[in-house]
Inverse folding.
């Protein structure tokens, strides 16, 4: 494999951090989603506390619309996946196109889910 520069090590670290954050967040999000519906939406505040993000949403409906899909929200799922993608682009030569394509597909699927969610 050869040597890896400190910059690439840093990019690999952050790629791993962002993808793990997305995975963990999605798992917790889906666990909490039913409760958000059943408990008149107040469960989203508990979710925010649980993952230690500020409640900038104001309501469950806004949270459900913005948290997964809002590229301007630094805490959103899509923002974290985009940061993972940015790190993977830098690492393309080391990771290979196949690994990069999985990250691209994840972002694409989130974008498709956003369109479906608007209906």
């Amino acid at each position: 494999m050869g040597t890896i520069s400190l910059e690439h090590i840093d990019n690999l670290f952050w790629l791993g951090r962002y993808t793990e954050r997305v995975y963990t967040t999605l798992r917790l999000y889906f666990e909490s989603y039913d409760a958000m519906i059943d408990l008149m939406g107040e469960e989203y505040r508990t979710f925010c506390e649980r993952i230690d993000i500020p409640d900038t949403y104001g309501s469950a409906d806004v949270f459900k619309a913005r948290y997964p899909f809002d590229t301007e929200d630094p805490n959103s799922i899509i923002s974290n996946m985009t940061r993972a993608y940015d790190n993977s682009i830098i690492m393309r030569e080391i990771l290979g196109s196949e690994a990069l394509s999985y990250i691209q597909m994840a972002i694409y699927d989130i974008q498709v889910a956003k369109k479906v969610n608007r209906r």
Q: What stands out?
A: Residues 15 and 84 are 5 Å apart (CA to CA). The mean pLDDT is 89. The chain has six helices and no strands.
